[in-house]
Amino acid sequence: QVQLVESGGGLVQAGGSRRLSCVASGNTFSNYVMGWFRQAPGKERGFVATITWGTRNTLYADSVKGRFTISRDNAKKTVYLQMNSLKPEDTAVYYCAAKAPLNGGSYYSVSSYDYWGQGTQVTVSS
Q1: What is the pLDDT of residues 100-116, one digit of tens each?
Q2: Which of 39-43, 50-54, 74-78, 102-106 has the highest mean pLDDT?
Q3: Helices marked H in 1-126 — which ranges?
Q4: Average pLDDT for residues 59-87, to the nearest whole number?
Q5: Of the candidates 20, 25, 56, 80, which lies 20 to 30 Å from 7 by C-alpha distance?
Q6: Cβ distance 36 to 50 under 8 Å?
Q7: Is the pLDDT of residue 57 over 80?
Q8: Helix (H, G, I), strand (E, B) or coil at 10
């Protein structure tokens, strides 16, 4: 069992930066693929970024590539999302998610992730 708690959301001006954190509980954090998703009002939850546990390979949605960086610290059981050059269209609730080692689903799919945090709101003003 993994529990996830996000923090770091808030109001930021367009062009600004924000770093989200997600702290995991449980003993097997280092074996999980960790991802960030977001959901804007009236839209479905969508993929933002993911990072594997061992090689720390990363994947990004095209809309955030070059602006967002995902990283993890297995010793601290924490995954981060550094968001730079923020745009109003980045406004959403951001969710941290964990994908179990034996789950062979797509990294990009909401349904592939086994555990979710409660979300943290990021609002980018123009």
Answers
A1: 877 888 999 999 999 99
A2: 39-43
A3: none
A4: 96
A5: 56
A6: yes
A7: yes
A8: strand
- Taken as a whole, the chain contains a residue count of 126
Burial letters 8-30, b for 16+ CB under 10 A, else e:
bbeebeeeeebebbbbbeeeebe
Please name which of 97, 44, 36 lies closest in space to residue 69, comparing C-alpha atoms: 36
Token duo for residue 46: 């969508």
User: What single-letter DSSP state applies at residue 69?
Assistant: E
Nearest to 34 by CA among 20, 24, 45: 24
CA angle 42, 93, 12 (to 5 degrees): 115
Cα separations in angstroms, 55 against 16, 58, 60, 114, 123: 30, 9, 16, 21, 32
Q: What is the CA radius of gyration of the chain?
A: 13
| Each residue's pLDDT tens digit, 1-39 | 789 999 999 999 999 999 999 999 976 767 889 999 999
State both tokens at 107.
Answer: 């990294």
